Protein: O-methyltransferase C-terminal domain-containing protein
Amino acid sequence: MDAATLVDQLEAVLAKPETLSGLDNDATKRRLSEAAFRLNLALEAGGDTIHRLTNAPLELALSRVGVQTGLWTALTKENALLPLTNSQLAKETKIDPVLLKRLLRYYQSKGMVAQTGEDAFAPSNITKALASVGGSSGINYFAEMIYPALMGIPEYLRKTEHANPSNPDFCPWHVGHKTEESPFSWLNTHPECMGYFLPWMAGQRDGNPEFLDSFDFEKEVGAGSDSSVPVFVDVGGAIGHQCILFKSRYPQYSGRIVLQEQAHVIEQVKAAPPPGMDGIDAQTYDFWGPQQLKGARAYYLRNVLHDFPPHKAKEILTNIKAGMTEQSVILIDEMVLPEVGTPWRAASLDMDMLACLAGVERSAKEWGEIFEAVGLELVKTVQYTVQCNDCIMILKQK
Ligand SMILES: C[S@@+](CC[C@H](N)C(=O)[O-])C[C@H]1O[C@@H](n2cnc3c(N)ncnc32)[C@H](O)[C@@H]1O
Structure:
């Protein structure tokens, strides 16, 4: 194919994305996005590469400026008369118009806003993501908590002679933050970060399918359950968003729906229950001890085990197993990485886990080794996103 023809076609799509059919197919849309991303990298001029890499921190820093000034919300306000001018945005955000002109120049170059004329700005898909509660919390959370840990990776690896991190008490987090505290206890003493972390946990998958879109709970787990045992127990479930989702999809179950979390999180949930929490039990459970709630139909863990190296993940599963009966399953909601061609988002999360917690995202083989070691049998894996290969793994006692 001729490159000039391809670029004409791509520019026509960029000018009018709505003319491209088939984008309602999530897998096609994802493939196209990934192919365009990889094509961009494959065609990058040598001189551009280092500038792209060295300026990478700017995206996070300047995203945060847009969060703290309310620029993203100003651009996405309902009833805003689009496009907006520099002076309209400056008035709303109180940013010096001279500075704002420079910021907007950067933002349009990264697709963070759409520039439709010399002094005309509108929201893009990226502006909308930045304006969301989950998005803005994620930006603040990464800037405060994760970024110093990522920048600690080289020094940490030098110190440990490039061994794979496996000690949660000493990982790049400790080097980057110059602390001996672990991230979870550090969060307790940094309430402003806890205020970013919890909404980010709830919103980090915005726009992606939910596990219950593809996983038939009634058929796989719930059939015949009654009020004598809990039906769904979310272990380490943050502020209960998955319990709320479960209850809204399966209001017919009489068995209890239970959120289990650390004491300070449960206190927070009880003090300010999120909408939809009524009828859901919130109870303290520390997963470093045996599960006290016996015989639940499903013990659900989303993004808990990826926080830990294998020996710790095994300890958690062994503790939960202590509560299981013949009827119980453990549902693990995590990414299952392909052995070839892992997408950028999943691979980046693996590095975030490495840096902060000596945690790890795992392939099917790596999950299998953990299950085998603790006497759990993998009954079935149901994939529910193409973005990150998010899956539900159903486990029974051997
Ligand atoms: C990565 S977050 C995942 C939250 C939630 N499952 C989700 O997917 O949105 C891990 C959760 O584990 C909880 N956690 C950490 N240590 C715990 C412990 N010892 N016992 C119970 N929960 C714990 C944290 O408070 C946090 O909410």
In short: The pocket of S-adenosylmethionine is lined by residues 184, 201, 236-238, 261-262, 265, 285-288, 302-304, 307 (CB under 6 Å). The chain has a mean pLDDT of 94. The longest strand covers residues 329-337.
